[in-house]
Amino acid sequence: MGGGGSTRRVTFEADENENITVVKGVRLSDSVIDRMKEPSSPSGRQHRGAGAVNDEELKKRIAEELALERARRDSEAQKRRLFGKLLERERISSNEHLTRAILRERAATEEERQKAQRFARQLEEKDRELKKHDAYYKEQLARLEERSAQFYKVTTEQYQKAADEVSARFK
């Protein structure tokens, strides 16, 4: 986990309070700065001879911190990408669901329209059939009335004739 693959050079200076200051604009987290402030020797002060070793150790710690920070950012970026993919899949799924629902509604509407047309044709057919029956029964009624009128006429004539005969016989 070190900065073995990094080619960036970072130089540091110590200020008058032995705090570490970043010179080349590298941003460090508060935890890194706090650890850099911690004394590395029990006396709390660094010796001149140990300074080189501590600089190397400090560089190593900073490189590790930078690597951790980079890994954290990469992890967050990956989470955002995964979340984006998940949102995209969810959007696609909901669009597919909506499309299927629309198609089902269109099919149901078309089926209802066809059923209404079928019922309208059946109604028209029944209406034509009723009109035919009406015409047939009117014709039959007219024939019966005509026949009835003929029977009335014949019966009236026969009655008149019979009445005339009876009246002629008994005068």
Detail the topology: elements first, then pairings.
Elements: E1 12-14, E2 20-22, H1 30-37, H2 48-169
Antiparallel strand pairs: 1-2
Could you give the order of strands across the largest sheet?
Answer: 1-2
Q: What would the principal axes of the Cα set say about the shape?
A: rod-shaped
Nearest-integer average pLDDT: 83
Strand content: under 5%
Number of strands: 2
Distance between the termini: 154 Å
Query: Order of helices and strands, N to C?
Result: EEHH
Helix content percent band: over 70%
Number of helices: 2
Could you name the ranges where pLDDT drops below 50 across 5 or more consecutive residues?
41-51
Largest sheet: 2 strands, antiparallel
Coarse structural class: mainly alpha
Rg is: 56 Å
What would your notes on this structure say?
The longest helix is centred in the middle third of the chain and has 122 residues, at 48-169. A hairpin with a 5-residue loop joins strand 1 and strand 2 (20-22). The chain has 171 residues and is mainly alpha-helical. The chain has helices spanning 30-37, 48-169; strands spanning 12-14, 20-22. A two-stranded antiparallel sheet has the order 1-2. The termini are far apart. It is rod-shaped and about 170 Å long. 2% of the residues are buried. Residues 41-51 have low confidence and may be disordered. It has a domain at 58-166.
